[in-house]
Amino acid sequence: MSDMRVMLEQIDEILRVKAPMTYGSLRPAARPEELDTLRSRGDILADVAALWEWHNSTNPEGSTVLELVPMFEFLSISAAARYWDMWRDAKSEFPYSPWRPDWVTIGANGCGGILVADHNGQIFLATPEAGEFVHDIASSPQHLVQQLLTALRDEKPFDGFIVGYPGGTLAWQPKDENSVSSYDRRYPS
Amino acid sequence: VKFDQPPARKAPDPDVAKRIASPPRKTNEKVDDYVKRTAQPRVNVDEAIAFAKATSNPVVTKANRANQMTAAAAGEDYYTLDECRQRHSGLIVWETKNVFSICTVNRVFKIQHRVCQQPPSTNCTTIGESQARLTAIGKGHNDSRTIDWEIWFDQWHLNWGAEVMTSVFTVLITCETLETQNSTCTHTPALGDSRSYLDWKQENTVSRQQTVTTSNLGNPAKSHHTFHPKIIATSARVDDYDLPTIVGRCDSATYMRSNLQNGCTFPFVDRFLEFNYAEELTKDSVGLYWDAMFHLNKIKRNVTGQFVPGGYYKQPVGEPNATYRPLTRRWPVERNDYKIQKQCRQFKDPYTKGPAPNFETGYYQCDEFPFASTDQAGAYNTEASLETWAARPVLSSHNTRTGNQVNDFFNNDRVLSGDDFFVTIINGPSGCHGCATMPLPAPVLPVPPQTDDRLGGSFIQPDLIDGWGSDDTVRAEFDSMRNLNMTTAVLQWTANSQDNRNSGARTAVYPTALPGYQQITNTDVLGRTLNIAAEKGINVWVGLQVNDHWWKTYANDTGWLANEDATARTLASDIWSKYGSKSSFAGWYLAFEMDNVNFSSTTSQDRMISFYSSVIGHLKQISGKRVAVAPFYNAVNTNLAGWQNATTWGAMWARVLDAVPIDVVALQDGIGAGHADIATLPTWFSAMKAAIDSTSSPAVLISDTETFKIGASGLQPMSNREIVSAVKAVDNYVTGYWSFSYNHYQSPRSKFASAAFHNAYSSWTSNTGGNGTDGSSPSTPGNLTALVDSPQNVILSWNSSSDSGSGVAGYHIYRNDELVADKIDSRSGFFDAQLEGNTTYKYEVRAFDGSGMESGLSNSVVVTTPPLPAAPANFARCGATAAGAPGCPYTLTGAPADPFYEDTGGRELTDGRNGPELYGEEWQGRNAPGTYEFTVDLGVSKTIKELDSRWFQVRQDYAFLPEKVEYLVSDSASTGFVSVGTIAMPAVSSRIQAKTYRTIDLNAQGRYVKVRIGGGTAWTMLDEIEVRG
Q: Are B178 and B212 in contact (CB under 8 A)?
C-alpha cells in the first residue's frame, strides 16, 4: 500500500472516532469512469487521483463537508470538472489569468478561491483577484495529506487553523480570526 | 442619479502655483544653462498632485470612457489628435482621459515677428503677429518608465503685418524628480527641437519623447516628476511660452503583470473601475456591488447608514461633511474568508450548493464588496463595521469573472498598492438587484424568540456541574433541557476573584495558568459544559468572574472596580484562547448586577458604564460574541437608602444601554427572592423595555424567571403554578425566558432530587394552557403520630400521600399552626430538632405536588418535651456579671463582620447581651461569608455541658439561619479540637425571629471552644455564644 493510501486510511480512522458525522458523510471512492471525466480535461498525477480514489468528496445532500485545507472543501470529481471549465472559460476572456489546463482543482473555499494541484504536484491556493499570485500549501499531494493527518491527529495548526470536532464534525477554527493568508508568490508563467 | 459628477475643483494654492512653474529664462540665457538651473524640485509630491487636480479638467475622465478596464491597456486608449482638439474646452488646462493620457490645446498661440538690430539682438521692432493652434498630448507607457509628449502646431494665421521666416524657437519638455531618492528624469533630446518659424509652419507637427529613469529602489520604485512643456525663443524674435506644469509618476512594481512591471501614469487622475450590469455573465456579482452601495439595508441587518466605500458619491449621503471614499488597492491579496462566509451563510446554508436535486457544490460563491484585494475589505479590516461591507452568495462563474476583471483593472490601469479608485456601474437596475430572489435572512436574535411562555434556557452554576462528576449526568441534564425546549445554558461564572468560601482566594472552575488562580473544581467545568452542550445542541453563555466583595462595595471603590475590569478582560482572553473554538460557545455573561438601590447616583452609573464598556468592548473585540447581563430590582423594600422606583431605574438603564452595547438584558423577576410580586412585575419589565426601546441599543429583554422561592426550609423549588404565573405576567415585554434555575431546583438531578417539579413543568410545556397546575391533588396524609425523642427532638410519622399527576413533591410541616418546614421528599416522616425543653407542641402535615396542588390537612397531634438538662453557668462570660460587660476573648477566622453590623470591640459575642428580634447593635452580620469560625478562650479548662449560639432570621432581607454550626473543644488554642456537636438549620417558620443553636448533654473538657459556622451565600447574623456548665 502506498504511503499516500496509508495516510488517507489513518485520516479515515481519526474521522471515524473524532468526527463521526463527517466520516459518515464521506462518499465512496470515485469510479474510474468518473475520474476519466476529469482526465479528459488534462492529466492527473497518480497521487492527486488517489484523493478521489479514497473518497469522492462528501454527500452533496448533507450539510457536512470535509475541508482538506482549512476553509477549502474537498470537491467531488464532477465539481472539480466544473471548476476546470469555469476557469478555462475565464482564461479565454482574461488571457492574463494564471490558470493552465494542468491545474486540477481539488478544493474550493466558496469565496472564489481554489485549492489547486498542478502538473508538478505543487499544491497552492489561487483566487482571481490575486491574478498570478498564489498562496503555497504543500510541495506535493503527499505533503498535503501529511499536513492534514498531523493537524487532525496531533491537533497542530494547519495554515493558521486548529481542528475541532463540535457535534462530531470536523471543523477548523482560526487561531486568530483576523489572520490572513497572503497570496504573494508569483505563479510561473 | 447613483453616481456623482466630478467635484468642483478647488483653486490652486497660489504659493504652490508660484513655485511649481519653471522660473523665467534670463535674458540671453542659453537653453542648456536654463535647463540645468531650473532642474530642481520646487514642490513636494502632494503639492504637485493637488496643483494638477486644481488646474486640470477631469470632466472627460468619466464621460468618455467606455470601459476603463480595456481603455487603459498601454497604447490602446491615448488621446488621438482629433479627440484632444475636440475635447478642448477653451481653457488652457490639461484635459484628462485616463491615468495614461492627458492633453491640452492653446488655440491662440501667438508669435511676434520682430526685426532686430545686430547686435544687440534685444533692440527689436515688431513688424507683425501670427497665431497658431498648439496641441500637446502626454502619454504614459504601461510597459516602461516612459512618458511620451507630442506637440503640434497648426491653423497658422497672420494676424497683422509681415512674417519673419527666420525666427527660431525650440520645443522643450523639462522635468524634475520630486522624491529625494536616487531618481532622475531625463528628456530627449536634451535641448529640445529647435526650428525656424518657416519650418514649424510648414511641418506643423513635432513629436517629443521624455524618458524617465529611476534607480530600482525597493518595490514599486515609485517616483514622481513635474513636467514643463515649453516654447523657448531661441532667437529674440518670439516670446517664451510655458504650458501648465503637470505631474507624472513612474514605477517598477514587480507585482504587476509580468509584461507590465514598469510604467508611468498621471497620478492626479481619478481611477474608475466600471462594471456593466447589463452584462449577463457578471450580473449576479455586479448586482451585489450595486445593492451594497445603494440598498445595503436590504441585504444586511442592523445597518443604520450607508457607508460602503468605493462608489463615486459623497458619503454619508446628504450630510454636509460628506466626502468621497474610494477603495484602495492592497497587495499582496490577503484573504480571510472566515467572516465573509459567516455573512453568506445567513442567506443560504450551505451557501455553496445549488438547488435540488443535484445540490451541486460550488454552484454559489460568496462575493464581497469592497473587494478582498482592497484595504477596505470587510474580512480583514478590523475597523470595518456593519455598514462598510457586504457579502452574499452569487453564481460562481460571475464571481470568477468579476474577480478577474478586478485583477485586470489593477494591471491595465496600473493601480499600485495604496492607490485609490472608485467603482461605477453602468446600466444599473432601477431597484435592488437581489433583494427579491435572495431576501434578507431572518434576524439572528441572541436568543430564539419565544411566544409560548416556555422557558428557553437556564442559568447553571459550576458547582452543580462539578458535582455531577459523570459526563453522562450532564448529558442527561442537557437532554432533559432540550426535551423541555430549552436551548440555552448560562454558566453563571468561571471564576471568583474573591472567593470567601475559600478564604478570599482567586478561584476558577477550569484549569488555568493565570497567575493567582486556583482551580477549585474537580473537573474542567467549562470544558465539560461546552463539549457536552455541543453534542446536545445547547448554546452556552459563558459567565466571567464573580467577586464576593461586590455586594459590599458595588461601584463605590473605583480602584477595586478597575481591578475587576482588568480581571474580566484577562480572564476572557484566557477563556477565549482555550475554548473559543467550541461550537456551543454562544456568548458571554457578565455578572456585577446593577440593581435599583445601589446605583442611584450618576457617578456610580457612570462608573458602571465605564466598566461595562471596557469589558464588553474587549469581549466583542476578541470574540465577536454577544454579551448578556442580569440586573435585578427590589420592588418591596422601598425604604432602602438609594431606592429608585421603576421609572427612575428605567431611566438609569436607558443611560447604560445608550452607552454600552449590551445584547441581552436578562432581568431577574425577583419573585422567588421576594423582591417583587406578580402584580408589580409589569411595572418593572415595562420600564426596562421602555429603556431599551428609547435608545439605539440592540438589546433584547429576557425574563430571568426565578424558579425557586424562599420557603419554609429556605431556598426550595417553586411550583409550576408559580412559575407560569410569573412568566405570563411579563409576556408582553420579553423575547424569551431564562430560568434561575431549572437545573438547581426543578431538575431531578438537582439536590432536591424530586421528579415532581420536573414532571409538572414538562407536562405544562407540552400544553401550555391553564395556570400550570395539573388538576390532581395529592391524597391527605393519614395517621399522623409524634414521638418525643429527647428534650430537643420530636419524630413525626404518617401514611404517605399519593398523586396521580406530577407526583407528590413533599410535605408541609406545621408546628403550633406555623409552617416550619417543607420536606421535599415524597416519603413520609420528619425529625423535628432544636426544640425547647418542657414545651408543648402541636403538629399537622399537608402534602403538595410539583404543580402547586395541595392535599387536605392531616390530623393533629400534641406532645410535650421534657426539661433541658441543667447547665446554669455561662463560662463564656469569664466571670463578668453585668450585662454588656466584656466576657471571654475570642478570635475570628474567616469573613469579618459587615461594617453595618460590626463586632464592636471584638467582644460582643460574649458580653451577655441578646439582641431583640429586630435589627440592633447586639447583632453582628456577615454577607455571603462562606465558612467562618470563632475560638473562645475560657481562660482555664472547664467541664462543658452545653454550647449555644444565637442567630437572627429576616428572610425577606436574605438573612437566614446558618446552614450548619459545629462546636469543637480543645485545651490548646490551635490544635486538638474535638467536635462535640453539629447543628443543622432547624425547622422554623418564615417570620422574623431569633433561634438558639444548642447542643446539650455534653461532658467535654477544654479551655478553648471553637464555633464553626457554615454561612453559605446569604447573610448570617449572630449575637451571642454561650459555653455552659
A: no
pLDDT tens digits for range B850-891: 999 999 999 999 999 999 999 999 999 999 999 889 999 999
Bridge partners, B160 (sequence order): B129
Task: Provide the 10 A C-beta neighbour count for residue B897.
Answer: 21
Contact B407 A131 (CB under 8 A): yes
Q: Which residue of A has its CA nearest to B407?
A: A129
Over residues B732-758, the pLDDT tens digits come to 999 999 999 999 999 999 999 999 999
Buried b (16+ CB within 10 A) or exposed e, A99-134: bbeebbbbbbbbbbbbbbbbeebbbbbbbbbbbbbb
The single-letter DSSP state of residue B7 is P
Q: Considering CB atoms only, which of B339, B359, B403 is closest to A127?
A: B403
Please count the residue pairs, one from chain A and one from chain B, whose beta carbons lie less than 8 angstroms apart: 162
| Rounded alpha-carbon distances, angstroms, from residue B971 to B886, B974, B1004 | 22, 9, 10
Preceding omega of B189 cis (within 30 degrees of 0) = yes
- Nearest-Å Rg of the Cα atoms of chain B is 44
Q: Cα(B138)–Cα(B52) distance, rounded to whole angstroms?
A: 14
Q: What is the pLDDT of residues B516-557, one digit of tens each?
A: 999 999 999 999 999 999 888 889 999 999 998 898 899 999
Query: Are A130 and B407 inside 8 Å of each other by CB?
Result: yes
Using a CB–CB cutoff of 8 Å, tell me whether B591 touches chain A. no
Say yes or no: B403 contacts chain A, CB-CB below 8 A: yes
Interface test with A, best of B258, B333, B415 (most A CBs within 10 A): B333
CB A45 within 8 A of CB A139: no
Question: Counting every residue, how long is chain B?
Answer: 1029
Burial A150-189 (b: 16+ CB within 10 A, else e): ebbeeeebbbbbbbbbbbbbbbbbbeebeebbebeeebee
Rounded CA-CA distance B13/B51 in Å is 7
Could you tell me which chain B residue has the CA closest to the CA of A177? B338
Whether the CB of A92 is below 8 Å from some CB of chain B: the reply is no
pLDDT digits (tens, 9 = 90+) for B238-251: 678 899 999 999 99
CA distance B526 to B465: 9
Cβ contact (<8 Å) for B337 and A111? Answer: yes
Q: Report the amino acid identity of residue B406.
A: V
Could you give phi then psi for residue B939, rounded to 5 degrees?
A: 90, -45
pTM for this one?
0.62
By DSSP bridging, strand A67-69 and strand A72-74 are: antiparallel
